[in-house]
Amino acid sequence: MESDSSPKEHSTNTTISNCVWKLRRYGRFLPKGKGKSKSTGTNCAWKIFESSESTGQLELNILGSGHLLVSQGQELLEGFSLLNAQSFLKIQHKSDSLLFNITIKGESRLIRLQFDGSSQAEAVGFCSKAVQRLQDYVPVQEHLSTPASTAPSDPAEPGPSIQQQQAPEDAPRAAPAVAMGPLSIKHLSQYFLGERELSLPMAYHQCTLPSGDLEALLRLCLLDSGFPAFVEEVEKKLKELMQE
Fold it and tell me: What CA–CA distance (Å, rounded) separates 159 from 45?
């Protein structure tokens, strides 16, 4: 009897739901000094986890809070926040697999996720759905070719380099791409004044203030006779920041 590997969505208190996908494999590339490849004898290797009845089902979970989790049974194998992920994360998509290149404090590591499905086509479809969700937080590049790489010892594994996807010149005008890297005060000021087309990363869309408190705060501000002057002063200061 085949298990259902369809992605599941779970509602949360926020407008963003949790999404879960079943994985066939999870790979963790161990840098020099962390592991040794049995096949090559070099001090680098992929450590592969596979779903099975004995070890448990591998799952990718992207929470509504913006956290990415990879688990197997009751064990958490990977976990980090996708908020502001553009500062440390690059993702490459190829067929039914995703390659994550994570760089923190000058140290890089690779992880690879291969999606599960009743067929190859279904696994590819689930991977594409996960890509759509990840793109809310960080750009995902398509793997257009297979460049030579000395990092993964398994030739079936995608290389760590990220291919830049070029948009055709005659493509129709689309929504602004999500801003990458840190945003300057000048660019944010231009955005809030409506003078710059910019799609802010998901981190800027998270509101920690409960909706009920926000409504009460807005009502209080609107009833304050000095609020219009305050708004004008804020706009004035934003324009000054644009000149810096």
Answer: 13
| Tokens (6 digits) for 104 | 């923190």
Q: Which residue has the tokens 């809310």?
A: 136
Amino acid identity, position 63: L
Does 12 score more than 80 pLDDT?
no
Alpha-helical runs (H) found in 2-148? 120-134
pLDDT on residue 44? 63
Q: What is the largest CA-CA distance in the chain?
A: 75
Cβ neighbours, 10 Å, residue 77:
16
Mean pLDDT along residues 17-43: 71
φ and ψ at residue 123, rounded to 5 degrees: -65, -40
- Nearest-CA neighbor of 99 among 146, 129, 141, 59? 141
Half-sphere exposure of 31 (CA within 13 A, CB side): 8
